[in-house]
Structure formats: C-alpha cells, structure tokens
Specification:
Largest sheet: 2 strands, antiparallel
Number of domains: 1
Shape: globular
CATH topology: Serine Threonine Protein Phosphatase 5, Tetratricopeptide repeat
Protein name: SusD/RagB family nutrient-binding outer membrane lipoprotein
CATH architecture: Alpha Horseshoe
Number of strands: 4
Strand content: under 5%
Organism: Algibacter mikhailovii
Keywords: Signal
Order of helices and strands: HHHHHHHEHHHHEEEHHHHHH
InterPro entries: SusD-like_2, TPR-like_helical_dom_sf
Number of helices: 17
Structural class: mainly alpha
Length: 474
C-alpha cells in the first residue's frame, strides 16, 4: 500500500489557475511567473498538484456526465456549449503550470547528465500524458512549437495524428532515459516529491510503456498504421497488477480532499447519499444492474431503485453514487492495469498474437477493476472477497468486441477524459445526446479558450462541438 501524501499545495494551485484564466498568460509561451531553473523535489509536487486539482476539481466535477457514467453535473458542457472559464483554466494550467514547469525540470536534468536521467524520464513521461490529454480535449493543439517561446511566440497547431505520434516518441524517450540512468551519484527524488510512485523509477518505466499503448490505440482508431509499434509495447513490461497503479492520494482534510465531495459539503450537506448530488448514469445502470458484478454495490447506493436518467440529478426515489465513491480521501487515478488488460483483449481479438488470449486478458481486466474498487484502493470502505470476485469473473462468457468495449468504459469509471476517449473511440456504450441540446450527438470536443484565440493568430477556427475528432475515424 502506498504512503498517503497530503497535497498541501492545492490552495496555491487554485490561485495560479485563476491568474492564468484572467490574464494574457494564456499565450502559452509567455509566463512572467516562470522560473529559469527547477529543483525537481520542489517543482514536481507542484506539477502533480496542478494536474490533479484541475482534473478532479473542474474537469472531474463538470465533464463526468459527458460520457454518462454520472447522470448530471453542474455547469457541464454536455449540451454543447463549453464555457471559456472551463476551457481557459484547463488550457492555461496544462500548458503553463504543467508543461512549462516540466520543460524546466527536463532541461535542468539534461544539463546535469545521466545522474539525472531518472528525473528527466519522469518529466518526459508526464509531458507525454499532458499532450495526450490536450489533444483529447481539443484535437489540434500546439506541440512541435509549443515550448519554444523564443523562436515560436505564436506556435502553430499540430493535427491530432502528429500530436499522438509525438506522445509515442516522448514515451520512448522517457523509457530510454530511465534505461540509461546512472545510479552512481544519482539525483535523489524524495518519496514525497513523487506522488505517484514515491521515486520508484521501475514503475515509471512501466507507466511510460503503458501510456504509449494508450496513445497507439487512439492512433490505430484514427486509421494510422501503428501495428508494429503496438507489438513493440507488447514486448516491453506493461501494467499488470494494482500495485502499479499511478494515483495521487488525498488525505481528506480541508484543502486536501477530493473535490467531488467538496461540492457536496460546500453547497448541500454532509454526504452524497443523503444530499442526492451525484447519481449513476444510464450506462452504469444498464451494464451493472442485475449482472452480479460487485462494482454495482461498491459504486451505487439505493441500487434497488431506478437510475435517475441522463441529464437528471438523483432524488430520494432513485439510485445515487455511494459514499464509497464520493468521499474526501478518494484517490485520483492516472492509469491502472485494467485499462491495459482490456487493450490487450481488444488487440488479441484483432489478431495480435503477442497480446495473448482475449479471454484471459478480458477476465484479468475485470478482476483488476473489481479488486481495485473492492480491495486495493486506499481508504476502501466497502470490500469484496476474492471468492466473490472469482465467482463473478469465472462465470463470464467468452468476450465479444462489444463486451471488451463496455468493460473499458467501466474500468475508466471516475476518470472523465479516459472514459470520454473510450466512448468516442469505440462508440460503445451507445450514448444518446442529452435532451434540449444544441448538438446532434454527445459532446465531442472543447472549443479553444478566448484568450488563446486573441493571443495566437494560428489558433484554428472552432468546429462545432459535435464534430468527431480524427481519432474517432474507425
């Protein structure tokens, strides 16, 4: 079990986020707050905090109904209108707070030589993840010119295929750096500075290869010929067990608690089950109710009642997300092995021999997901025995492609960008647009922030928010 780290920098994160959203700092290459060098043990905790705060506090509480694993949230763009605040805050924090600081860490580590290759590898892997999520939100984004403000003060926007291929290259670079790190005189990353893995560089290498597979699956869905690169990832270590999960732990105290509960306690009352703020979306109800899947009891309270229905908040007569899920110390997961298991199951059905057995990988993915929520997640409140997990998993039929896609959606529960990616990539589960929407489908993309449009003439014209992204091609 991981140590629990208090995210004491969140108040600073929110302050900086508001600065970014209200100033010309959304020109991503002009940041008067930026330093010229970076101590990894000081900067990495800030970067982790920037990321998890934005992902949970704003993206998490506002777009988790887009993929409909939650029935409704406040100020959501699910009807087609993405607010400038939502897009601007996320854009600014991702580019300035994360990529800007990571580029400094990376440059300093490169200058220090092989004794800092561990630092360089971590920074490079985190940069890869950031660019992947940027393109998942906006499609075309600055990549090749993004972090060179001297030469490219108004960077061009690269197409999604270019960005995703760049993510793959960054993952390869991260692994090469980790493989060549010099343990003699190596820079010591303190456990408290590395909120994901406590400085365990072997786990970072596994993460980088697993992230590479995530990017390659999106490239393959877009029609790119990446089969050889997929086989490369299958030849390298990938996540297989929950002790390799990348997550940030919230200790649950004021200022360091999961924002899903903060919304409940700040505006309604003591907990979600009594206040009826977040309910399960229809796909969760349809996939889990009556299935015998233990996640139904772990995720949903009053689950003998009907789900609220998409675009509707729960009430005392409907099911509601349980306090096991909406709690102060719920960790924020970046990546877990069930995602990788289910990619391998998908690839096995597509004929990739190196992926192994579709059936075995499918069952491993379901088992890892249930074990995470019912055993391995820090602070678990409700548990499931190994015997009950085995009974359910062993009783599953051999999977079809749609079975695998549905499990990918379930395994991404409470991870809004990943769940949204799966729905857009697979078209499974089939989601109806919310009622009274301005678009013809579910939301497909964010619009560019107004400040970026004003600062950078290379910003593309906004497309309608129901226009599919390139990676949705297949």
């Amino acid at each position: 079990m991981k140590k629990i780290y208090s995210i004491i920098i969140l108040s600073a994160v929110f302050t900086l986020s508001s600065i970014y959203s209200c100033s010309d700092n959304l020109d991503i290459n002009t940041d008067p707050l930026a330093a010229t060098s970076a101590d990894p043990n000081a900067v990495l905790p800030f970067v982790f905090g920037e990321y998890t705060a934005r992902k949970v506090s704003e993206l998490g509480t506002r777009i988790c109904d887009v993929s409909q694993y939650i029935s409704n949230t406040y100020n959501s763009p699910n009807r087609g209108a993405v607010s400038g605040t939502l897009s601007g805050n996320t854009w600014g924090v991702w580019y300035v707070g994360m990529l800007g600081n990571l580029s400094l860490v990376k440059a300093d580590a490169a200058a220090a030589g092989s004794s800092s290759n561990n630092v360089n590898g971590i920074a490079t892997a985190l940069m890869a993840n950031t660019f992947l999520e940027l393109t998942a939100l906006w499609e075309d984004v600055p990549f090749t010119e993004a972090l060179d403000g001297v030469n490219f003060p108004q960077p061009k926007f690269d197409d999604q295929e270019t960005v995703l291929n760049g993510v793959v290259d960054l993952c390869d670079e991260a692994m090469a750096l980790i493989d060549s790190h010099n343990t003699d005189g190596e820079f010591q990353i303190t456990p408290a500075s590395d909120m994901y893995y406590g400085g365990d560089i072997a786990k970072w290498r596994i993460f980088a290869n697993s992230l590479k597979l995530r990017a390659l699956m999106m490239l393959r869905s877009g029609g790119a010929n990446v089969d050889a690169k997929i086989n490369e990832t299958l030849d390298q270590p990938l996540m297989t067990s929950n002790d390799q999960t990348a997550y940030v732990n919230y200790v649950g105290t004021p200022g360091a608690q999961n924002a899903m509960l903060t919304i409940v306690t700040a505006f309604f009352g003591p907990d979600n089950e009594s206040q009826n703020v977040f309910g399960p979306g229809d796909p969760i109800d349809e996939l889990l109710s009556g299935s015998g899947d233990p996640r139904w009891d772990l995720w949903v309270a009053r689950n003998d009642l009907d789900a609220p229905g998409n675009d509707i908040f729960p009430d005392p007569e409907t099911s509601v997300l349980s306090n096991n899920i909406i709690r102060a110390d719920l960790p924020d997961v970046l990546m877990s092995p069930d995602e990788i298991d289910l990619y391998k199951a998908e690839l096995a059905l597509a004929g990739f021999a190196k992926a192994g057995s579709a059936d075995t990988n499918y069952r491993n993915g379901v088992r890892n997901s249930i074990k995470w929520w019912g055993q391995d997640i820090p602070g678990v409140l409700a548990t499931v025995s190994d015997a009950d997990i085995d009974a359910y998993v062993n009783g599953l039929a051999a999977p079809t492609a749609n079975d695998i896609y549905n499990e990918q959606f379930l395994a991404a529960f409470n991870r809004p960008i990943l769940a949204w990616n799966h729905v857009r990539r697979n078209k499974i589960p089939v989601l109806d647009p919310p009622p009274a929407t301005s678009i013809s489908t579910i939301l497909k993309r964010f619009t560019y922030p107004p400040d970026e449009i004003g600062n950078n003439p290379n910003t593309p014209a906004n497309k309608q928010t129901d226009v599919p992204m390139w990676f949705e091609n297949l």
